[in-house]
Amino acid sequence: MNRPSRVIGFVNAAHFIDHYAMLIFAAAVIIMGPALGMAYADLLPYATPGFIAFGAGALVTGWLGDRWSRRHMMLVFYLGIGLSMISVGLVQTPWQLGATLFAIGLFASIYHPVGTAMLVSYADRLGRDMGLNGVFGNLGVASSALVTGVVGQYLGWRFAFIVPGVITIGIGVVFAMLVAHEDRRGSKQAAAQARVAREQMWRVVLALLLVVIAISTTFNAITVALPKLFAERLAGLTQSPALLGVIAAGVYVFGAMTQYTIGRLLDRHTLKAVALPLSLVLAPLLYLAADARDWALILASIGIVMGAFGQVTVNDAMVGKYTAEEWRSRAYAVRYFVGFTAAGASVGLVAWLYERGGFVTMLQAFAALALVAIIAALILPPELPAAQPALREVPAE
């Protein structure tokens, strides 16, 4: 048997790498544009196929994780996404860029349905472990902006892809050596941890669909747009790409810490009690950020990422709490397919809104979309009194 702490450690590392890899381009595109002779709005859509693959691939990779091996799929993730990052650093044409970014998205699609299901199978306390896992994911977001800014400024944008690609392959080799494939059929795992009346389950499904679409779209739009937004709006503070990366990283760290806090709250309170207050902060802060600059923009951005990243933990916990083990990988596959497909569309939407009204129009549009998260939280039904968790067999990994 694998040690749970070791497996969870590699799953957390993979979450870091997953988000880091997906957002290198968002930070590097600022300096890639002049090097490739293309405008920001023209270059950004080349990331769209990768983000679509990030979501659409989840259905297939989640199924393979159940039918083949979660461990083997995670090894494919490490090696595949590492090679894809290196390939981006070697491109010569925009079409090669689109193809290699697509490859990153395709291999990145492995992590969430496979890695999250693996985490839940080994987790001791679901909320705490999922919150900590969210911290790693968002530290990946933060580090992507920071490291890409620094490496891009001093070594060039190509090394911003090549260096993390080499490191990722190295971690994959260590993972292959230390984590063995195991057939866990016959071991025990708790079933769904929260209960609602059977006739109220449609409200859970509807709330999950609404909040996943709204938050995934907003979350991805903000993480993609934030480096460029800071480059435009923080000119009164700095114009250094490296320092802008440090500021963006600092903002993302607040979001990461929020995920851990929300995870701990979910172990003590119902989903609705946590989700409703959290849903109320996004829309007003996005609207305020539309006209903000310098320190006001930084403070508004901190609140936005705290609200959006906290909602992501709520979304994941909703699937983990309400779904029994035998359905969990498929449930996560559907959740991420819907979420990341919506997120993929947000890249083109950011470019389209930016062309028509800059960041004012973009942020106001996503403020309106964030209102849907409030509706979703209100739809959630009350939970029934806790019952003694049933024990079920865990499928093979």
Give the helix level as a range of percent: over 70%
The rough form would be described as globular
Amount of beta strand: under 5%
The rounded Rg comes to: 20 Å
The biggest beta sheet, please? Answer: 2 strands, antiparallel
Oligomer, anyone?
single chain
In total, the number of strands is 2
Strand order of the largest sheet: 1-2
Pairing-aware structural class of the strands and helices?
mainly alpha
Number of helices: 14
- Uncertain segments are 186-192, 387-396
Give the topology string: H per helix, E per strand: HHHHHHHHEHHHHHHE
What is the CA–CA distance across the termini? Answer: 12 Å
Mean pLDDT: 82
Transmembrane segments: 20-40, 46-64, 76-95, 101-123, 135-155, 161-180, 201-222, 242-263, 270-289, 295-314, 334-354, 360-380
Subcellular location: Cell membrane
Keywords: Cell membrane, Membrane, Transmembrane, Transmembrane helix, Transport
Protein name: MFS transporter
Describe the structure.
The chain has 397 residues and is an all-alpha fold. The protein is built from 14 helices and two strands; from the N terminus they run ααααααααβααααααβ. Strands 1-2 form a two-stranded antiparallel ribbon. α7 packs antiparallel against α8 (157-178), α9 (201-233) packs antiparallel against α10 (241-266) and α11 (271-279) runs antiparallel to α13 (294-322). It starts with a helix and ends with a strand. Mean pLDDT is 82; it is low at 186-192 and 387-396.
